[in-house]
Each structure stands twice: as structure tokens, then as C-alpha cells.
Amino acid sequence: MNGTTTLILGGGSGGIVTAHTLRTLLPQEHKIVLVDKRNAFYIGATKTWVMMGMRTPQEVTRSLDALKRRGIEVMHTSVKSIDPAKREVVTGNGVLRGDYLVIALGADLNMGAVQGLEPAAHTFYTMDGAMRLRDTLKRFSGGHIVLLIPRVPIKCPPAPYEAVMLLHYAFKMSGLLGKTRLSVYTVEPAPMPTAGPEMGKFISGLLDERGIALHTSKRTQSVDVARRLIRFEDGSEVRYDLLIAVPPHEAPRAAKESGLTNQSGWIPADPKTLQTAADRVYAIGDVSVIPLPGRYKPDAPLVLPKAGVFAEAHGKVVAGQIAAHVLGKAPSEVFDGKGFCYIETGDSHAVRGDGDFYATPHPRITSRAPDLMQFQEKEAWVESFMKTYVT
Ligand SMILES: Cc1cc2nc3c(=O)[nH]c(=O)nc-3n(C[C@H](O)[C@H](O)[C@H](O)COP(=O)(O)OP(=O)(O)OC[C@H]3O[C@@H](n4cnc5c(N)ncnc54)[C@H](O)[C@@H]3O)c2cc1C
Questions:
Q1: 5-107+251-336 architecture in CATH?
Q2: Atom of ligand 1 at shortest distance to CA of 15?
Q3: Strand ranges (E), 199-269
């Protein structure tokens, strides 16, 4: 095949891994173009570090331009629309056409989806939000902190539980714990439900040990910013002094309007190859929805959680699929549903959960007790990712 062009939409975890891996697999005559409206890249897992003042944003941020040195074209512009049949993309910088298209646009965060949430809540789910919250926490002198998960799906389902445990530890160290109450209100039936009832119990136990109240199956109706009050659909209410929310997630508009999304609002992708319904068009990472073969309850189907480790694994698989197609070889790699995540528990401790999400009769997760070594593994994982892909 003559020189081909692969368009990669989105330069987050999934997009940069696809671009980097594909560049190692294909000769230079094959163009790889990565499009992102931002130039900054940071791993999601570092946002809690910024929120807690453990790292500055500069320490965890790299420029996507680092990819140019590897022979990848990087365009800083917005994706406005996608025509999957033609593999044609309208951007702020004109129209692009590809022989292969990888949609890696992630999830948009929309506080506006819940009435009153936007003016009321802080968040650490964006880098700007993590910085603002860090400054607010410096001035916090005690009261009721509510960590709210108003809607699912969310990326990195353990992150809110990690954040509340990090806050607990910080208040313990600063002496503010006696004046502070920490509560989690979540729409989930249990923490991280896709990881199963055992993991739910494990997380609930960690919260319980710290005196952090957990309220499950609480779907937020609205927030009254003037009265500092959250109303839930079951008629109950709670008052807060500081509200920290996980913003409702949705697929970016260009993905939604591409015609590729299903009733979930996300783009269904083949569980092994990440191919969408359109020929030579792939969807990876947070923007995709991947049904799982197993379930815990017969009437409750599951989908793959949204996480950076999966976006990374998807990127490698899709690069392998595209390279094999271009070079006329059989693809050797498929996505196996396996991944891991670290949950920090404070005091430089973390627990690593290893998951086999394609296992039946339901996903299989294993974990150990939190310790320093697992925290150091998390630090090494972040460092190695940045060094491999964006240095
Ligand atoms: C607080 C927090 C902690 C986390 N911790 C972990 C963890 O410990 N482990 C883990 O595995 N995951 C973690 N995650 C989740 C992880 O960050 C995401 O799942 C991962 O980034 C998804 O990768 P992606 O490539 O699909 O999307 P993203 O990394 O979000 O990338 C999407 C890219 O698309 C670009 N984009 C979007 N729309 C447009 C457009 N219209 N035009 C141009 N560009 C566009 C964006 O600018 C972005 O760069 C965490 C997330 C958060 C918020």
C-alpha cells in the first residue's frame, strides 16, 4: 500500500499511545496525524496530587509537541465534526481525510447537567479545578465536606474514594479532623460497582475505618448554592460547607453527532479490536463503550470502566490492528480486558487492584492491603508513562 494517513482524534492517554505505537510499527511514508485542541498532556492520576499540593501542575504536565520529534504530525485544533463513512474530519484548521481514523476524544465534563451544581461545586476532575480546590483547601478551617458523585459513568471510578481518603489524612495531619466531617454521596449502589461486591466492601471498609460516611444510591436532583444544600431524587437533603463533585460525563459533541454512538451516549467498539460500526474507524478509551461478557446480577449488564490504563491498552491494540492492515499481515494483538489501578489511601500508601474484566461469570479483581510499596509503584507507573510517550 502507498503511504497511508492515520488520523488520531484526541491526544490524551489513548491518542498518544496509539500515535507512538503506530510510529514504531510503520515506516515514515505512512503519515500519522494527531489532533487535539490542547497542547498540554497530564495523566489523570496526577490531579489528586495537584489538589493535595503534592505536585505542581508544571511538574506533571508535558507538551504534545514532544511527539513531533518522533515523526508524528501534531495539530492543535478543535475537532468539529466527523464523517465516519468518508473518514473525514472537519477541524478548526480545515478538513482532514484519513485511511484510518481513531476516535480518542475522551469524555466531556458537564457540571451544567445537574441544576445548581456548577456554581456550587469544586472538582478535582480537571487540572484547573484541582488547582482551585487546592487553594480553597488551604483556607478551609473545618465543616462538612461532601464528595458528590451525581451521575455515572465516570472515569476512574476509584478516584473519588481516593480523594476523600487523601483529604482525611491531610486533615489528620493538620489537626483539622476534629472540626471536619467527611461524607460521600453517590448514585452508585456501592463503590466501584463494576469491580464487584467484594471490592465495594473493601472500599466501604477503608472509609468506615476513617469515619467517612458513605451514602449510596443517591441520585442528585439539584443543588441550592445559596442554602448550601443538595437535594436527592428520593426526597432527602444534605447541607454542606464545602462541596466537591465529580462532574457528569458525556461524549464530546463531535463524537455524539458522528452517528456512531448508541443509546448509552458513547461509541460502541468491538471488545477485542476496538473497531466501530464504520470500516477502519476505531473508538478507544473513555469515548468508547464496551460490553462485558460477565455480570454479578442476571439483570444488570456491565460495561468496561473508563480508565487511562484501558485507553493505553486500547491504543496499543489499535496501532497493531492498523499496522497489520497497512502491511498486509495478520494482527497479532487483541484487547484482553485486563487492567490495574492504584487507589491511594493517605500517608503515602496505596492499594493496587488488578482486574480481569472479560472474566466470567463476572469480572475478577484482586488486591492487597495498602502499603508504601504500592504507592511507590504508582509513582513509577506515572513516571514511566510520561518518559515513554511524551518526553
Ligand atoms: C482525578 C482522576 C484520577 C484518575 N486516575 C486514574 C488512575 O489512577 N488510573 C487510570 O487508569 N485512570 C485514571 N483516570 C482516568 C484517565 O485519566 C482517563 O480514563 C484517560 O485519560 C482516558 O484517556 P482517553 O485518551 O480516552 O481520554 P483523555 O485522556 O481525556 O483524552 C481526550 C483528549 O481529547 C481532546 N479533545 C476532546 N474533545 C476534543 C475536540 N472536540 N477537539 C480536539 N480535541 C478534543 C482532549 O483535549 C483530550 O486531550 C483518572 C481520571 C481523573 C479525572
A1: 3-Layer(bba) Sandwich (3.50)
A2: 25
A3: 213-215, 220-224, 229-232, 237-239, 242-245, 249-250, 267-268
Ligand 1 test: best mutation among 33, 101, 105, most atoms within 8 Å of CB? 105
Atom of ligand 1 nearest to the CA of 285: 26
pTM, two decimals, is 0.98
- Per residue in 265-312, pLDDT tens? 999 999 999 999 999 999 999 999 999 999 999 999 999 999 999 999
- β-partners of residue 338 are 356
29 Cα–ligand 1 center, Å: 30
Q: Which residues line ligand 1 (CB under 6 A)?
A: 10-15, 35-38, 44-45, 47-48, 78-79, 104-106, 124-125, 155-156, 159, 252, 254, 285-287, 306-309, 311, 341-342
Q: Using alpha carbons, select from 244, 242, 245, 243 the residue that is nearest to residue 141.
A: 242
CATH superfamily of 110-249: FAD/NAD(P)-binding domain (3.50.50.60)
pLDDT, one tens digit per residue, over 97-125 is 999 999 999 999 999 999 999 999 999 99
